[in-house]
Amino acid sequence: MSDENQSAREKIAEIRETIDEIDCQLVRLLNKRAKSTLAIRKLKPQVQWGLYDPKREEEIFAHIAQCNEGPLFADDLRDIFDTVLRVSKEMRV
Amino acid sequence: MSDENQSAREKIAEIRETIDEIDCQLVRLLNKRAKSTLAIRKLKPQVQWGLYDPKREEEIFAHIAQCNEGPLFADDLRDIFDTVLRVSKEMRV
Predict the structure, then answer these.
(1) A49: helix, coil or strand?
(2) What is the ipTM, given to two decimal places?
(3) How far is CA A33 from the centre of its chain?
(4) Considering the entire predicted model, what is its pTM?
(5) What number of helices (H) and strands (E) belong to chain A?
(6) Which of residues 10-39 of B touch A (CB under 8 A)?
(7) Crossing angle for the helix pair A74-90 and B3-47, to the nearest 10 degrees
(8) Which of A25, A27, A70 sits opposite B68 (nearest CB)?
């Protein structure tokens, strides 16, 4: 294996460790978000709101686009948050 | 509107602010992750690896399940990270 090849492999391994750390932080935040969603779900019957709120979903998409500094595009984030919101709605708790 | 109803509405508004803050943190982390993914993508030709690496994807799923403390289930996180990985592969940069 050439030195250059070896050095690229080491760099990839290093960046993958960084990604693993980021992923654990993402998992923590997603769980924190899920807890907040469950707290709202409990309060909704008191205010006679349905579980699905399309206006609030549009607010969420507008908000994430606003705090996005890239390199991901707003559409990429929308895809990811679409899944986050779907999973939230289907949460079995 | 009853006092109880008013108080539930205020609580929901407060929790939604917390969710908005979490979402901005998620956006920051997802972008940090995307930058790391792009850095690896640049290095891959030097080590003659393809862009798609199913073994690494399984490592990622195992890792997120390991650092998960709930309330989300491993399957919920797998759904979300499936989208994150798909978006990463399709990133137009």
Answers:
(1) coil
(2) 0.94
(3) 9
(4) 0.94
(5) 3, 0
(6) 11-12, 15-16, 18-20, 22-39
(7) 130
(8) A27
